Amino acid sequence: MNENNIIYPDLVEHSYQIMKSQGVQITKAKLYKKLVKSGMLDKYGQPTQMALDEGLVDTYTRLDDGTYQPKSLETFKQDNPMYADYADNHFTWIDGKGWAVDEYVIRAEANDIINDPNSTQEQRQTAYDMLKYASHED
Asked: Which domain of life is it from (predicted)?
């Protein structure tokens, strides 16, 4: 597979462009490995707390609980592929809390888990709890 066919995280792409503009010769693959080794990216290509704290990633915002979430819905969906096919109107940004999904998405995701023969009992119980919450039952 050609390196140009691989989709690298934003931090890799941005770093690569900076290095390239300064005449540094490095492949994106090698840069990716260096960023993981240095602790700026985790093994899944997500920015680490260190990268976020140092301001290397501007597509994320710090929430009230100290965690980070993407500023844009597009990035949120890229980070959470299970939501990729849902229309944007099912998502709401809540200041300080991040992205929230509506009842339709909660029900659909819960039902997918319940009907998945590979889901664990714990996952199914969480899905039942989600459905109960979505139904506003006590």
From this structure: Bacteria
Pairwise CA distance, residues 29 & 11, whole Å: 12
The residue length of the chain stands at 138
What residues contact residue 92 under an 8 Å CB cut-off, 6+ apart? 99, 100, 101, 102
Whether residue 110 contacts residue 101, with contact meaning beta carbons closer than 8 Å, is answered with no
Could you report the per-residue pLDDT of 47-80, keeping only the tens digit for each? 888 887 777 777 777 778 877 788 889 988 887 8
What is d(CA 116, CA 59) in angstroms, rounded to the nearest whole number? 33
SS3 content of the chain, % helix, strand, coil (to 5): 50, 10, 40
